[in-house]
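hiii, so i know i said id send this last week but things got crazy w the move. better late than never?? heres the sequnce for the chain we talked about at the cafe, plus the structure i predicted for it. fair warning i was half asleep when i ran it
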Amino acid sequence: MNSLSIVDPSEKLVSLQNSIGLPKMHETDPVPEKPALVPETPEQNKAPADVPTSYHLQTIWLFTRNDLKSIVFPETAFGIFSALSGPVLTANASPHLLSTLGRLPLVLVWCWINVLIFDVANQRLSTSVIEDSVNKPWRPLPSGRLSLSQARRFLLLILPIGFVATMYLGGLEETVAMMVLTWMYNDLGGADESYVVRNLINAFGFVCYSSGATLVACGRGRSSFLPVTYEWLGIVGGIVFTTLQMQDMADQEGDRARNRGTVPLVLGDWPARWTIAIPVACWSLVCPAFWQLNIYAYIVPVICGGTVASRILLFRTVNSDKITWKLWNVWITSLYLLPLVKYHVA
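okay and structure toks below
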């Protein structure tokens, strides 16, 4: 495995202090679990009048950039696939292709708004800045585009916007549930409690995304779920709970900097890889079997799952893990497609 040159997180934090208001740290200081915030100067909180709108739009995009491939696009696909599955998952006996596809922008907006709320709530924490200064220095806070106070105020703005938007789009209950999960994950420290708690909260979050995206894709009056729908959502939660540590494999340096107990840091890199490979291989077989599909329906999930499982064991560099994480998202999307396959082969 190629050796990597990683800048000491405490050194990087020194350059961030003036722009975002983190407390001073020195090389000999231990990284605190909950770094205290220091008052920010008026200059840090003031938004320059000459900053173009495009700059602010890019800042907003940078909050969610990393989660487009892992949440926004896959969960939008889940909603559209589920709506088109008709009587397999919902009370809609005859789903209309063009009508459902016409709601795709609404599903995208719904997923993105909820991701934005979570990402701002997460990235505004000083511990997150420590991690991001190593793993994702391009994000708004470690890059100096926003201060901690500005990020907090932005969150105060988008929370009611998200609430009102989902009142119109649908999936309001799921949005409220995710706000609670976001609070548990970030402000109550659920993400740092243990990897079990972290994966459990994430699993419930994905269930909410999947359910809400389906409701929006179906449209009002055509979104009543069947009992099997809740079973399928439970399976989705199980998939996330047992395999989402895939996203932590490439982030070990940043997670170590903030003392986060992720699976690879607690169990070790090599054991952690097996905790991903084995469940991925199992779910690739369990999900087609759940839908009682023929042997041909196993091909895509098994190929995608086999690729993820083999790569996580054979290719162990940071860059390789980033690629495998992207393939994990392709794999789970292939599982999301199975109810639609069931509808067309039934």
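btw DSSP finds 18 helices and no strands in the chain. thought thatd interest u
miss u guys!!
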